[in-house]
Amino acid sequence: MTGPMVLIFNPAARGGRSKQYLEEVRSQLEQRRLPYEVRPTERPGHATEIAKLSLEAGAKLIVAVGGDGTIHEVVNGMVHDDEPVVPGATLGVIAAGTACDFVKTFGIPTMPAHAVAHLDGPESFPIDLGSVRYEQGGRWHKRYFANVAEVGLGAEVVRRAIRIPRVFHPLNYHLAFWWSVVRHEPAEVEVDLTDRTYRGPMTNLVAANCQFFAGGMKVAPKAAPTDGVLDFQIQFPSKREAIALLPKTYQGTHVPHPHIREAKRVRVSITSERPLPIEADGQMLGHTPAIFEVVKDVISLKV
Fold this sequence. Notes:
The mean pLDDT is about 95. About 25% of the residues lie in helices and about 35% in strands. The chain is an alpha+beta fold. It has a 15-stranded mixed β-sheet that branches. It has a two-stranded antiparallel ribbon with strand order 4-5. It has eight helices and 17 strands. The chain has two domains: about 5-120, Probable inorganic polyphosphate/atp-NAD kinase, domain 1 (Rossmann fold, 3-Layer(aba) Sandwich); about 130-300, Tumour Suppressor Smad4.
């Protein structure tokens, strides 16, 4: 590693309690004599700016200190036009957010002492990211995601969950799910899977680089962020089935299912009869039509 690691810290994570967590992280870093700089975020999108500028200034290890939203912003500052902003750039993660499902796929611990131990030493390995192109405001946009993206009901749940007061955490996702599922109606879609096309009703589309989301749901049990493909699920269960599948998602036993089509693909596109909302890593984006692609081995993960 060249120079100090840059810790991009979200002061709003954990409802503002992440500041105490950061002090524990600092203590562990100093005990290990690891050089570091802390750069707090001040607004949405700031972590992306900090990551890009830090890399261009010579940093090699960028550490996201926060949840999945912080990781999402950081990786979007590390990659441009499907290439790393700086070759050899490495992502580190210290899970200090309300939800950090990304680390669960890799077994990275959440306790400060154990998390910091993963930042020591030379070990890292390349990982894939997902990309999604989507419409917003009459224009096409593109974002990268490290974990999981959704189209349809899942995005509606995330949109509602964001609005629920923090006092209801960790029940906010479940409250948002119940509120959304009773009101949601399937949409007619066309999903191009390259070798075949799905045409019909859809409740939700999952595009997964990693396995877990929504506070520990094992939504994509076969996903591996090192296999060069994304795991897709075209979901079209009835409302009653969707409710019954919810607890099974925590164990990853919701698949296989006759009303969930699974596929591993490099590229998938979706069009729909009406614009459907899109979320990635718990961040609301735009709406369909959309194109999902894997970006293979584009950054490394510190382990």
